[in-house]
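One such given next:

>
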Amino acid sequence: MSRESLCIMIPKIYGERTIAFASKLAIIDRALEIQSDANYVYVPLTRQPSAEELAGLKGQVPDCTFKLYVFPEKKKQSKIIMEILEGQLSPHLMASLPKALDIVGDIAIVEVPPELETQKNLIGKAILEAHRNVRTVLAKAGAVSGDYRLRDFAVIAGEPKTSTVHKEFGCTYHVDVARAYFSPRLSFEHNRVASLVQGGETVVDLFAGVGPFSVLIAKNRESVKVYAVDLNPDAVELLRTNIRLNRVENRVFPILGDARLIVEEKLKGVADRVIMNLPEKAIEFVDVACKALKTEGGTFHFYGFVHEPDSLDALKARFVDAVADSGRHVHQLLLAKTVRETAPYECQVVLDAKII
C-alpha cells in the first residue's frame, strides 16, 4: 500500500542530518518508508513545520524543499523498537535512539550514540525483540580503518559472534564482519554493476572483499571471467568459500595480494571492465586500473568519498586528471551519482566511465 504525503526533499549528503533534526521535532511520519533516488532523500512528514522549526531546519540544511510525494507504507512489525523501549528510557534519550541499522544475515549492526552507551544492552535486546530473524546485535566500537577496512564491534545482545550467512540477489555469502569488510548498503550497487556486464567480458575486481561484485557477476553471466583481488587473507578465504558455495569456480579467480603488484605481474591489459570499490584510496589506484584495461580501453566503476566543502564535480575533475596522468583518456562519464551518506557532511559516490 502507498499514499501521498507532504515531505521534505533534501540532497542525499544532508539525509542523516535532516532525519535526526526532524526526529527531534517529532514530525516524521513513521508509518511511511523514507525514500531516495540518485540525488535526493524524501522524508514523509506528519505536518508542516512551524516558522520557528523551519528556521532551525534551514539553519541545518539550507537546500531543502517541501512537496507532495507518494510513499510506500511500512510493513507492520509485531513491535517496533521505540514501542518496546517506551517508558524504559527518558524522552530525551528516546529522541537519541539510532534511526537505522544494518542487517547482515542474522546479525544486526547499530551505532549507539555516546549518550546511550550505558543503555546499549537494553537497546540490543529491543532490536532482538523487534527483528525475529536477528540472533546477534553488534554495536560499532570504532571507525573503519586500516588497509583491510575493518572496525571493532561489541556484542550487545544475542549470540556472541561476528560471522553469518548473508543472501543477496540470489547469491549466498559467508561473511565475518570483524575479519573482512562488507556493507549491505551497497547491495543495489552490486546488482547494478553486475547487470551491466556483458557475456564474454573479462572483469578485474581490484578490491573484491568476500565477493559481492565478483560472485554476482559470474552468477548472472556464464561466459565471463572475473579476477577478484584482495589484500586481506581472511577476505580471500571467505571469497573462496563463496565462489564454491555459488558454483562459479570456473568464472571467478581469487587472487591474494596488493592490487598494484598483482596487476603489474599478472593482469596487465586483460580487462574490459575494472571495479574500484575502495573509496578511501581508489584515486591512488587509477594508474593500476588503467594498466589492467585492454589496449582498446573499457569501463571503470570508481567509488570515492566526497567530504564537504568538496563536491562531486571536484572529484570528477581529479578522476579525469588521474586517468590522463596514467596515459589514458576519459572518453565519456557514463554516470556520476551519490550512493549513500556515510557520515555527517560525507557521502560515497560512484563514477562509471568509458576509458580509451
Summary: Residues 81-161 form a domain with the GMP Synthetase; Chain A, domain 3 fold (CATH 3.30.300.110). DSSP finds eleven helices and 17 strands in the chain. The chain has three domains: 2-72, 81-161, 179-355. Residues 2 and 308 are 35 Å apart (CA to CA).
